[in-house]
Amino acid sequence: MHTLADPLRHAARHYADNPAIICGDIRMNYAEMTARCRRLGGALKALGLAPGDRVAILAANSHQYIETYMAVPAAGFAVVPLNTRHADAELAYALQDSGARILLIDREPGALAAHVKRVIQIPDGYEVLIGEADEIELGEGVTEQTLAGLFYTGGTTGASKGVMLSHRNLIANCHNWTGITQPTPEDIAVVMAPLFHAAGSNSVIASIWSGGSQLVIPAFNPADILDQIAREGATQTLGVPIMIAALAEEQHANPRDVSSVRTVAHGASPIATEVIRRAIAAFPDAEFIHLYGATELAPLATGLRHEELMPHSDLLRSCGQAAPGVAVRVMNEDGGECAPGEVGEIAVQGPNVMQGYWNKPAETAAALRDGWYFSGDLGYADENSYIFLMDRAKDMIISGAENVYCTEVEEVLHQHPAVLQAAVFGIPDEKWGEAVHAAIQLRHPVEAEELIAFCSERIAGYKVPKGIDFWDEPLPISGPGKILKRELRKPYWEGRNKQIG
């Protein structure tokens, strides 16, 4: 049995002098970081928190965030990482729903302060708090089934829900992450994915357990990140597709020495193969790893290693096979397993599967069935159990009784050299029910007619976009970096009683 106290204990015992954190001008080793975590635990207990009480954090990536993420659960409380892109009303809902007693925050709390017992500002108030605290032994009274955190979903397809992840869930995911990405004490991991997202924070657990360094990036800026990679000799990173694409574009435009980078992992949403090819060219010495999962899975379910060795293989479109100890199946509407190549809903079973949704028994029962988590993602498995993602069930377009998988159309659009970003979604159509529509950010000008003709040569007519919106700026994204298709669809569906797909 392990809890989040164990990676900290292990790091303090075996890697005390190893650099743990690089964050701006801040540098600290594991002896210093783990001592700060023990003081944070002591400070929270001194404030009167009881086992299981929730502590929310709303902040950019920082060393204080990493300490909070590790120490709060290790001290027997539950951490509630809040999405920095959420509106105040969404944040207030999460605070009320979780019953958080304390809010750690790096900005003015405003009306959010009314929803908690105490607000602690990062960095000043936080530093005063732990500077006056006594160290405690972490992990006492904590078991693998203890609630470690409530992770509120990004809300890309609906209302946000508090995902209950136990210590067992997070530690199981840490082992899976370690098996796939193989962190070492010599690694310097670039923490650029937001730490409120389960993937970004869980890579941190593996890094701590392995004794590696973490290069913490407070705000995503491709040029700045590449400069820091070159300066520090960073070796690993994880990002969502939009981040990987932006790094590749900047590296192609202004090359740096990125030869130290040995792994580039990506996940959270499907990625076009053309984006991967450009990224591989930008980081020629790196191993590329495609990860698939969900917050409800803590978050890792599958992995595909060495994408750089398969630039023209069909496997480049796959998110890999199930992680060790995890079972992944593709299920049909009758509850049976789909045949190879047959599209169905992806279901996952394993120690990483959430305990449920906080205060939402109906939603929990709908998602957790017969020991399996039903993801709402559509895809298929090949004869070797490699998983291929097609779409979110809620994003699939039904046009004239034909199913159109948005990722298939996006894949083709990204093959055009003018296309930087593409998102495909359904809009109302009186004849067909829904029509295929695209929102695109360009590298250089091109007419919509050219892109439509480009698609017509490569996919069936009913899949070809009937219209295209051009964006001068990046497409809207959620905090975890997924394109907010509901925002793109919204103007077309306003005033209608029913939205298909």
Describe the SSE topology.
Elements: H1 5-14, E1 19-23, E2 26-29, H2 30-46, E3 54-58, H3 63-74, E4 78-81, H4 88-98, E5 102-105, E6 118-121, H5 124-131, E7 147-152, E8 162-166, H6 167-181, E9 188-191, H7 198-210, E10 213-216, H8 222-232, E11 236-239, H9 241-253, E12 263-266, H10 273-282, E13 287-293, E14 300-304, E15 321-322, E16 327-331, E17 344-349, E18 356-357, H11 361-367, E19 368-369, E20 372-381, E21 387-392, E22 397-399, E23 402-404, H12 406-414, E24 419-429, E25 433-442, H13 448-456, E26 467-471, H14 485-493
Parallel strand pairs: 1-10, 3-4, 3-5, 5-6, 9-10, 9-11, 11-12, 12-13, 25-26
Antiparallel strand pairs: 1-2, 7-8, 8-18, 13-14, 14-15, 16-17, 17-20, 19-20, 20-21, 22-23, 24-25
What brief labels describe this structure?
501 residues, alpha/beta, Rossmann fold, GMP Synthetase, Chain A, domain 3, nine-stranded mixed beta sheet, five-stranded antiparallel beta sheet, 14 helices, 31% helix, 26% strand, globular, disordered C terminus
Describe this structure in words.
With 501 residues, this protein is an alpha/beta fold. It has two domains: 5-381, Rossmann fold (3-Layer(aba) Sandwich), CATH 3.40.50.12780; 397-493, GMP Synthetase, Chain A, domain 3, CATH 3.30.300.30. It is 31% helix and 26% strand. It has helices spanning 5-14, 30-46, 63-74, 88-98, 124-131, 167-181, 198-210, 222-232, 241-253, 273-282, 361-367, 406-414, 448-456, 485-493; strands spanning 19-23, 26-29, 54-58, 78-81, 102-105, 118-121, 147-152, 162-166, 188-191, 213-216, 236-239, 263-266, 287-293, 300-304, 321-322, 327-331, 344-349, 356-357, 368-369, 372-381, 387-392, 397-399, 402-404, 419-429, 433-442, 467-471. The protein has a nine-stranded mixed β-sheet, with helices on both faces. A hairpin with a 2-residue loop joins strand 19 and strand 20. Helix 1 (5-14) packs parallel to helix 7 (198-210) and helix 9 (241-253) packs across helix 10. The radius of gyration is 22 Å and the shape is globular. Residues 497-501 have low confidence and may be disordered.
